[in-house]
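sry for the spam today, last one i promise. struct tokens for design, 270 residues
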């Protein structure tokens, strides 16, 4: 476990890590108990992702989750964290097409959850919102490539920017996000060589998910890499544990012990 007095990770820390070539680690978390474990293990960034819509609420997409839901999950995570930088996804409908709404939403996230930064999906089309949020002193992480909030536009979760035209647009968007003031950008499900080119072109850290090894850091959804979720197995996902099987076995054992009269025993009673 990392000491509670370990140096706090900030946006400046991530910049220094990129300069020194030290890889950045990022995982999602949505509740106090798991966030406490992730932070204690020493992960650099905890993303309170709108993927909570999928893994916590059982929705098919990230679109249904609300700003209020995101604030709640972020509050739970912030309460658990001593060291990690906590980044909170701005959900669908909280920033698109209206920079004033974007600022209002970002302020609510920061004030009501205590989060340290927000993350927004999109490129040049959201630069005005990013600049307005940054003027209020709120750090912004960008997100390019596969942007799950736009699933109904793309119609598929397949790899993005494989064609030259879309790849060049991603490069232009990445530069635009950097120039707007983003402290980092996530690249999701894009070709590894494109992610390498973009990472080398940018002075801000890049975080990959399905974008190859050459990004400055990596992110996975915690429930996926722990094997809690079973119906999601993209190529980029490495399962580091099979907690789902362990939970299943534990619950079945509990049921058997209760029904068989073995729980509670005398030493477990008052």
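last one done:
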């Amino acid at each position: 476990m990392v000491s509670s007095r370990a140096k706090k990770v900030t946006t400046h820390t991530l910049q220094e890590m990129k300069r020194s070539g030290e890889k950045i680690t990022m995982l999602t978390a949505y509740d106090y108990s798991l966030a406490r474990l992730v932070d204690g293990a020493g992960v650099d960034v905890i993303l309170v992702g709108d993927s909570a819509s999928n893994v916590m609420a059982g929705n098919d997409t990230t679109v249904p989750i609300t700003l209020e839901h995101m604030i709640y999950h972020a509050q739970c995570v912030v309460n658990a964290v001593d060291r990690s930088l906590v980044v909170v996804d701005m959900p669908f409908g909280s920033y698109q097409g209206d920079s004033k709404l974007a600022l209002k939403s970002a302020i609510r996230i920061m004030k009501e959850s205590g989060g340290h930064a927000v993350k927004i999906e999109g490129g040049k089309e959201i630069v005005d919102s990013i600049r307005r949020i940054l003027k209020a002193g709120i750090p912004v992480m960008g997100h390019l490539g596969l942007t799950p909030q736009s699933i109904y536009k793309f119609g598929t979760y397949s790899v993005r920017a494989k064609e030259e035209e879309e790849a060049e647009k991603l490069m232009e968007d990445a530069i635009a996000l950097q120039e707007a003031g983003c402290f980092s950008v996530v690249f999701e499900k894009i070709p590894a060589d494109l992610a390498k080119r973009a990472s080398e072109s940018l002075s801000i850290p890049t975080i990959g998910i399905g974008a190859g090894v050459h990004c400055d850091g990596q992110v996975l959804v915690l429930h996926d890499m722990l094997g809690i979720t079973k119906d999601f197995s993209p190529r980029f996902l490495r399962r580091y544990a099979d907690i789902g099987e362990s939970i299943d076995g534990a619950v079945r054992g509990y049921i058997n012990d209760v029904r068989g009269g073995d729980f509670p025993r005398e030493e477990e009673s008052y």
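The CA atoms of residues 14 and 258 lie 50 Å apart. ok im logging off now
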